[in-house]
Amino acid sequence: MRYLTIYSPLSLTFINSQADYQPGAAKTAFAERFKHLQGVKVKTVGEAFAEFTKILGQPINALYKNMMTDIVGTTHLTVVNARFVRDPIWSLGMISALNLLLKNYPEEGTQEKITSSLFECCGLDEAEVRAEAAELKAWVAGKSKDDITKALRGEGDGPIPAVAKATKDDEYWMYSRFFGIGLVALMDEVGVEMNADDVYPVMEEFVQDSLGKPHFTACSDSDTYFKIKGKLDLMETMMKEIEIREKKRMAQRLEDKAETQIRAAERQAEMADEVEKEAAKMSSQ
Prior knowledge:
Elements: H1 9-19, H2 29-34, H3 45-56, H4 62-79, H5 88-102, H6 110-121, H7 126-140, H8 145-152, H9 159-169, H10 177-189, H11 196-210, H12 216-284
Helix pairs in contact: 3-4, 3-6, 5-7, 5-10, 8-9, 8-11, 10-11, 10-12, 11-12
């Protein structure tokens, strides 16, 4: 069966417009703002992960490989986006997420190497990110949820009002996962119950009501955060139980070994005593 394809004038116009497309030449506010980035070379996700692996210089534990592949790819795609602007909330989210995900990494000292390799392959200054996160964490100490809400409205001083004003004034502001986790970290600091049900309405209040931005992705990311946290907490509990059982087994093995050595020593002593008695009997004859 043959079909007749009909091209409408609209579709031909669209095709022609696509054929004449030139990067950065569109007459829109978005194109005007970011046209200076035309032709900038951007690494692929594969290239970013290859660089991460080269910088790290050692294999990643099999349990963490998929997770790190996702984090490297997601972080790379975030920071190379023209709309991305790093801020203290995002920095706090990144540090908090990495601390949570890597805290039980089995090889001691490798956590720091993985974190530094991630920063370097994504073109981020680790010292600056950590300084921003530390400054924000110091600012929020002693604050309440309402204080953060006011700050996200642009009221008061400190690092958050400046972020809030810049976010509200930027029609092309881009939300990313670490920003949402940064807000969760702030909630944790001010005593919000750390579970998905209690965090959801607070996230809605922070993002939609205070910042005036859509909250659905942030709430979804917070749900994912708590699911992963729950799995990691369960894994940590299991690892501790395994460690306790292994220590008990080791203690039992040491105890059994000690008892065996004691019994052997007792047998040797008894044998020596018997030999001595036999020798005394032989000499008396």
